[in-house]
Design brief:
about 60% helix, mainly alpha, 3 strands, about 230 residues
């Protein structure tokens, strides 16, 4: 299922959502200036590699500082490929404007970062010995989706479902779309958890952790409206 748009128009221009998209795109363009060896080291330095924080000796051997937690922030703006970037930014655009509406740009930015850190932490707990750097905005965006799940229960999401070579366009209640998305992430993470380390390049538990953080924490960031 690929979301196309939601049915809730934003009341204000989503300046912070646009800014986040721009920063992610600029970071991606910067990544393109590096060779394969350079980008690998770059991800190791600025992505979240779980073993870096659970095995200090290993981290030092790799030339990494186990006490540097900046990657929990920088990893949120890095991506492993253009499809990874485009899909993440598209989903952020669909759901982020409405959440920003209710929080305001500054609270929304703080909420986004908190959910991103929570998502990376969840993946670290699930796979503490993983040596693959984790990059991408999907965990933070999952937090935005978790907030949207509770904040706009009456919204609907125009979704395209590919049936062989024929695309089916259908409006799905947002709670159904997001609920199914979360269930898929959870089940995928549970299946993956059977193995010792994550495989396939997708941080399922980061998505789960970000979504739960968004559901639990979003009320703390809402603008209190009078009357």
């Amino acid at each position: 299922m690929l979301p196309i748009r939601d049915t809730i128009p934003s009341q204000t221009y989503p300046y912070m959502t646009v800014a986040l998209i721009v920063v992610n795109v600029v970071a991606w363009l910067f990544e393109l200036t590096m060779g394969m060896e350079g980008i690998g080291q770059f991800f190791l330095d600025f992505g979240v590699t779980p073993r870096r924080f659970t095995d200090p000796q290993w981290a030092v051997e790799q030339g990494l500082d186990p006490g540097n937690y900046l990657p929990f922030l920088t990893s949120l703006f890095l991506h492993g490929g253009w499809m990874h970037l485009i899909f993440n930014m598209w989903v952020l655009w669909i759901f982020g404007d409405n959440v920003e509406d209710r929080m305001g740009p500054i609270r929304y930015l703080l909420f986004y970062i908190v959910c991103g850190v929570a998502s990376s932490s969840a993946q670290l707990v699930a796979h503490p010995t993983a040596e693959i750097p984790m990059v991408g905005a999907s965990g933070a965006i999952a937090g935005v989706m978790g907030a949207y799940f509770f904040m706009f229960p009456r919204s609907r999401v125009l979704t395209v479902i590919p049936i062989i070579f024929w695309p089916l366009f259908i409006e799905i209640p947002a709670v159904v779309f997001l609920g199914l998305w979360f269930l898929f992430q959870f089940l995928s993470g549970a299946i993956e958890r059977i193995g010792p380390v994550p495989v396939g390049g997708i941080a399922w538990w980061a998505h789960v952790g970000g979504f739960i953080a968004g559901m639990v924490l979003h009320r703390m960031f809402l603008i209190r409206r009078r009357g």
